Amino acid sequence: MRTKRCSVRKALTACSLQKNVTTHTFVTSISKNDKSVLPWGREKTMDEIIEKQLCGFQKQAQNVEELTRGLLGTISEGMVPGKEELDLFHSGLDELRIKYEGIFEYAKSVLPEDALPLFGSSVNTIFQAIDDNSRKLTEQLENAKNILTQFIRVKSMISI
């Protein structure tokens, strides 16, 4: 049995191919004890969790970027943004911050402390650390499997 390794590149690709991502259904914190279960009962893989979090963050970042461009356009025309525009911008930033904190909390739940990037690192850096740790764990599991396989093959030459 092979262990499936998560991939930041795969999640980024899947996110860019996805058309209608709902950012409001983002899971803000996932711990080791959570059973992130899909509607038909199968647990989500690390790839699915990462893809959902990364896509949600990227979509919200794009929304905030568009709001920022709108505000800058208004200001460059010599006008002042309206209260509704500013409220929308602030709520977009708040949601983006919540998504980032959720991603960081997820990383804290799956990474050893020495592999955890600093708070404030880019989400790509955080997911790359998760990917690297997953690769390292997969290698360690393969090594343990090889050692156990060799151990099982040892035959005793002593008869009792």
Give a written overview of the molecule.
The protein has 160 residues and is an all-alpha fold. Helices cover 62% and strands 0% of the residues. The chain is built from 4 helices and no strands. It is rod-shaped and about 95 Å long. The N terminus is likely disordered.
What is shown here, in short?
Helices cover 62% and strands 0% of the residues. It is mainly alpha-helical and 160 residues long. Helix 2 (46-76) packs antiparallel against helix 3 (83-110) and helix 3 (83-110) packs parallel to helix 4 (123-153).
- What are the low-pLDDT stretches, counting only 5+ consecutive residues below 50? 1-7, 16-40
Structural class: mainly alpha
**Multimerization status:** single chain
Cα radius of gyration in angstroms: 22 Å
Q: Give helix and strand order, one letter per element, not per position.
A: HHHH
- Percentage of residues in strands: under 5%
Shape: rod-shaped
Main beta sheet = none
Mean pLDDT: 77
- Total helices: the number is 4
Number of strands: 0
What's the end-to-end separation, in Å? 35 Å
Share in helix: 55-70%
